[in-house]
Amino acid sequence: MIPIAKPQIGQEEIDAVVGVLQSGMIAQGPKVEEFEQAFAEYAGSGYAVAVNSGTAALHVALLAHGIGEGDEVITTPFSFIATANSTLYTGAKPVFADIEPDTFNICPAEIQDKISPKTKAIMPVHLYGHPADMKAIMEIAEDHKLVVIEDACQAHGAECLGKKVGSFGTGAFSFYPTKNMTTSEGGMLTTNDREIAEKAKMVRAHGSKVRYLHECLGFNLRMTDIAAAIGLAQLGKLTGFTAARQKNADLLSTGLKDVSGVSVPVIKEGCTHVFHQYTIRAKKRDELGAFLMENEIGTGVHYPIPIHKQPLYKELGYTDSMPVSEKAAAEVLSLPVHPGVSEADVQKIIASVKEFYARE
Ligand SMILES: *Cc1c(COP(=O)(O)O)cnc(C)c1O
Question: Is residue 76 part of a domain?
């Protein structure tokens, strides 16, 4: 079986966890601080604040920017549900803007159309590891004095305009086991604004800077030193992981680009794509997925139902139609691209996709 995702855990991660367990400091402590510094440096941001999930990083980012009841946050409906839910947690309203058909990322012209006097922030997602159009998004944000919160949960190390994603606005990263690097569960907020970093640290720990003095409503969203130790080991390997993903993606695209029925991922000029997912558009998507499964190749659909069509959002009264997202949801299929996929695996994937369409 070639799985769609597989965390790369080695002896370094095991030794690091054992070391923390033996130290006796097993909640948030010195490893978290070390991981924050190392990640800030990697991500090209002044500050990094570790939390216990990517969802928490988005939630804390919104709260640190003072977003809440009465505010609107413009985001994409073609993402994991956490993107929009983080806004709901604060009492603010997610407003959806449709995506671009080639990168699957939020469309700047659609953002422009959705701006109202209540708009406080734009939350683009760097979906599958391909940067959103940050040039256009930062221009819109500047014109309308909006905060930008980048959902970089799938895009560790991706770059556009010579900068790492998560360093344009306030960034949110996930370290869930399927992501480009993991801490088991975990997340990180990145920012160049010292004040936002300080607020984020308070929100993560019950609104407290000084022990037992609580200045605002906060939560317990802390990362453990056990998770941070895994993260430090993974961060040291991330460049290699990314190169392996990019190599696999390149081989897949070379093998699949002329297959009728398939469109392979694009990489926009000036962007690096870190291939959290290698996602094609495929004719007869569900049949292809089933055929690959019979051939012991795992696939994924990211995502089968756009967020505005989820029962929760229907219940909240969302009725807009988002045709580009809805079409994408019916056509996308992710193929294994992670560092555990060998060159022989890639050749098997290509041959199996070709075999499927040859039978059609
Ligand atoms: C994974 C993911 C999240 C949430 O991260 P968790 O660590 O699972 O909470 C948010 N947004 C996107 C786009 C994701 O892929």
Answer: yes
In a domain, 82, yes or no: yes
Q: Is residue 3 part of a domain?
A: no
How far, in Å, from the CA of 172 to the mean position of ligand 1? 9
The residue whose C-alpha atom lies closest to atom 5 belonging to ligand 1 is 54
What is the total count of domains within the chain? 2
pLDDT tens sequence across 128-168? 999 999 999 999 999 999 999 999 999 999 999 999 999 99
Question: 94-104 b/e with 16+ CB inside 10 Å = b?
Answer: bbbbbbbbebb
- Per the domain annotation, does 5 fall within a domain? no
Model confidence over 196-227: pLDDT tens digits? Answer: 999 999 999 999 999 999 999 999 999 999 99
Pocket of ligand 1 (CB under 6 A): 53-55, 79-80, 82-83, 125, 151, 153-154, 174, 176, 187
| Cβ atoms of 92 and 72 closer than 8 Å | yes
260 CA → ligand 1 middle, Å: 33
The CATH number of residue 81's host domain is: 3.40.640.10
Sheet-wide strand order for 93-96: 47-51, 187-191, 170-174, 147-151, 119-123, 72-75, 93-96
- For residue range 181-195, list pLDDT tens digits in order: 999 999 999 999 999
Torsion of CA 7, 12, 18, 21, to 10 degrees: -80
